[in-house]
Amino acid sequence: MLRAELVSARSRLGMRGIRLHELQAKLSPIFVIGGNRSGTSIVSLMLSQHADLEGLFQDDATSRTLPSGHSIGFAESTHVWPSLDPDDRERVQRGQWPLWSLPEYLQGTYRNRAKSDREKLRLAWDVERLRSSANQPLIKDQFNTLRIGLVTDVFPKARFVLVSRQFEDFARRGIRKWSEDHESGHLQLSLNSDEPRVAL
């Protein structure tokens, strides 16, 4: 069978017929990780311009605003492994942000290993099926900071770019963004909730 026919047959079959070690040998994805508002989006966009990389970004790296008015970043790859994130629709509808500050959210997001070889294959296939070229995938999702063990379990040849920011700059930018959201009416707080809104 010719290579093109094999690829076509595999895409029709989905995951069936794909071996984990084949995907692990073929893929050396780069994961951009870092804290919120640290500059991961701009670093991801710059790296994705490299001829050997393909940014697996959602909606062509455009900014999005959620129904609550909360603005989410661009160059996001959160669609690559959505099954790993706790279901947060109910919290979004109640306007309880930021989710990443809630201990139970972080606890549900942290993963150090795949549960089984089947899960490894599924997670590797999730990356493979989103590729549209032979270039290595570039993935930016801040929650992968909590999944480095899982990522290296699935992709032993994975590489990481850690983006960090001085604490003072991070705090200043966060306050400025919060003020902009508040002035534009996008900030929604649940003042009746027992959960903390801000942690210092």
From TrEMBL:
InterPro entries: P-loop_NTPase. This is Sulfotransferase domain-containing protein.
